[in-house]
Amino acid sequence: MFYGTVVWDPWLIVAQIVCLQCLYYLTLGVFLSFFVGTRVSRMSLVYFFDFATVATSTVTGWCVIASFLLSSIAGAGYMLYLIERAKKCLDFSATLYIIHLFICIMYGDGNSEKFPSHDIDQMFDDKESITKKFLEAFIVFRCFGGAEC
């Protein structure tokens, strides 16, 4: 492909995203089976999609962390071969991890007690106080900016 001509090809982009995602999970599965599979009696999707397994308190957690890091390095190599453009690599890597985040949220059903979403919901429950804090900050900004208060 000539790099001077830019052609909008959405099917190519979707195919690259799907291929990259499949290669990432395949590589992650190989590394998890090599590192974690030797330590646990039964492998499951928990090691792929549950954030509680990524822990520094156990050796198995460190093996999960090593698997994710090594599959990320392999993913960079896949991008070098599949994407072929440095400008697009950030977009594709962000897409890969955003899709992984959504899969993790769907796998965990989104209402795990360990997941900090309830804290975020409580913080934004009172819309009036948020609006009040925003207005106070705006008034303070205007006063220090030299405007008449």
TrEMBL record:
Alphabetical list of InterPro entries matching this protein: Integral_membrane_SYS1-rel
Subcellular localization(s) per the UniProt record: Golgi apparatus membrane
Protein topology in the membrane: Multi-pass membrane protein
The entry's keywords: Golgi apparatus, Membrane, Protein transport, Transmembrane, Transmembrane helix, Transport
Transmembrane segment boundaries: 12-35, 47-70
Homology family: Belongs to the SYS1 family.
Name used for this protein in its record: Protein SYS1 homolog
Lineage, highest ranks first: Eukaryota, Viridiplantae, Streptophyta, Embryophyta, Tracheophyta
